[in-house]
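User: quick one, fold this
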Amino acid sequence: MKVLLIIIIILLALYLFLTAPRMINRADRTPFMKQKFYAHRGLFDNESDAPENSLAAFEKAVDAGYGIEMDVQLTKDDRLVVFHDATLKRMCGIKGNVWDYTLEELQQLRLAESKERIPTFEEVLNLVAGRVPLIVEYKLDRPLTKVCELANELLSQYKGDYCIESFHPFALMWYKKHRPDVLRGQLSGNLKEYAKTPKMKIFYTLVTYLLTNVLTRPDFIAYDHLYVNNISRRVCKWLGALSVTYTVKSVERYKEVKNDFDLFIFDSCILK
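Assistant:
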């Protein structure tokens, strides 16, 4: 019985070591505690003249006083654009991935048949100009941290409040090494269902249960609100990590989970 107890204690200690967020020398989270609502891809409506991740949607979010969550990825010619999907079909109606096209080619396209085009990251930063805090999500559909390096060149000159997040631990590892002063967050949820190969299933399971935290030591966990009871998410919150959720799509759902999270990324509704 004594041996079993020792084994249990060792396993528990190992689990806590693997999943723990950053515990010392934490980045400043104060600016983000002042704004709890973040407009997902801007305050958008894909049936309007302000589709997702457009300059118009970001301006609407600023005008409404919301923080902004946005997606950043690289083009074929290594330019930073703000666009969510890996592929262009849903928002622009053409085949291919974002990284198959140059910036010049992408800016000929229009978002959701509106007048808006795919903006560069620099254009979005210039538009927001520090008026509201930003959550910048790095898309590493190709596991390249070059997106972190190039975005950091712009963000290091930016005068507003921002933090970064990603589903891919590589992005957080880059920030841990090169910019430990920046608030960094691990995105997660029930990712196992997206695995297409046995290796990917292992990787997604590790991220689902936040076991990659041992490599990244995030300041916050951004977790799918549908899986609010994930044990690792709750442990991280208990250990002091800022608790963020995505993507809340109704006032009713917000009321159901409002005591479980600190910050809320939302769309399809207005939260106050």
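User: anything notable?
Assistant: Residues 2-19 form the longest helix (18 residues).
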